[in-house]
Amino acid sequence: MATGLHAPILDWYAENARDLPWRRPGAGPWAILVSEIMLQQTPVVRVLPVWTEWMERWPTPAALAAEPPGEAVRHWGRLGYPRRALNLHACARAITAEHAGQVPSSYEELRRLPGIGDYTAAAVASFAFGRSHAVLDTNVRRVLARAVRGEEYPPKATTTAERRLAESLLPALDAPRWAVAVMELGALVCTARTPRCADCPVAAACAWRLAGRPAYEGPERRGQTYAGTDRQCRGRLLAVLRDAHGAVPKAALDAVWDDAVQRERALDGLVADGLAEVVDEGAYRLPT
DNA sequence: TAGGCGTGGAC
DNA sequence: TGTCCAAGCCT
Known about the structure:
With 288 residues, the chain is mainly alpha-helical. Among the domains are: 17-129, Endonuclease III, domain 1, CATH 1.10.340.30; 230-285, Arc Repressor Mutant, subunit A, CATH 1.10.10. 53% of the residues lie in helices and 3% in strands. It is built from 15 helices and 3 strands. Strands 1-3-2 form a 3-stranded antiparallel β-sheet. A hairpin with a 2-residue loop joins strand 2 and strand 3 (283-285). It is globular and about 65 Å long. It starts with 5 loop residues before the first helix and ends with a strand. The chain binds a DNA duplex (11 and 11 nucleotides) through residues 35-47, 78-84, 87, 114-120, 123, 135, 137-140, 156-157, 180, 183, 186-187, 191-194, 221-226, 229-232, 234-235, 238, 269, 273.
């Protein structure tokens, strides 16, 4: 089914792939794993400088594992979702302790590491180890929804039908290249907001375009406000801890958020998540 | 399974 | 301007 997609997309990728450092031949499994975690819900342009600094600072899992988790959080900077920094640090320690310092190569072993779900396990197994897996990220899901199903957007949660479709499209040869090519097409051409169908190598076969690009009809796509949320408050508090070295008096945290009830709740949440540590009654710091 | 979890750029 | 979105994961 839909095997006519392969050649045009692979040819397009050969001409249009971005030169990203984690795609270069020299990039090892650790470099690829770090990039995949950083890229979760985060644009490439923002990942690039942080990834580069991380790889210089911690070129191996053992190097990161030797540091306190707070250093991972500090050097995460403003990438967002800082639990990922903690996850990566825990990955480094697990890889060092249980895998002799080598990133495991199988989907199943990768999947057991903290912060590595279906997508990331499949991506690392594919891109770092050449394994054949259906790599279903938001880009791939959108491309398949449009080209094959004729709908503007995929369902909110990945369905078994989507997975079966993706698996049916796995090529016998070089599945990793196919995976990265479809992802790249989704990232550069078959974009969420304003798809560039004029530049698409499979426009002639795209079910959605052929149907006249009908508008999405599924359930409401939630758009969460950010200003005033606990998330914003947590971000402000953690920024203070990151930018200070060592313990921060609570007064310095109080200064960045007015609502005391929400501030306490957010701070408790950071501590519960392991992103912050209580030094004594009056101070906090990144985890040691 | 729906909702929580950061941040900033694009339109 | 506010809304939407970016290589998800976890509970």
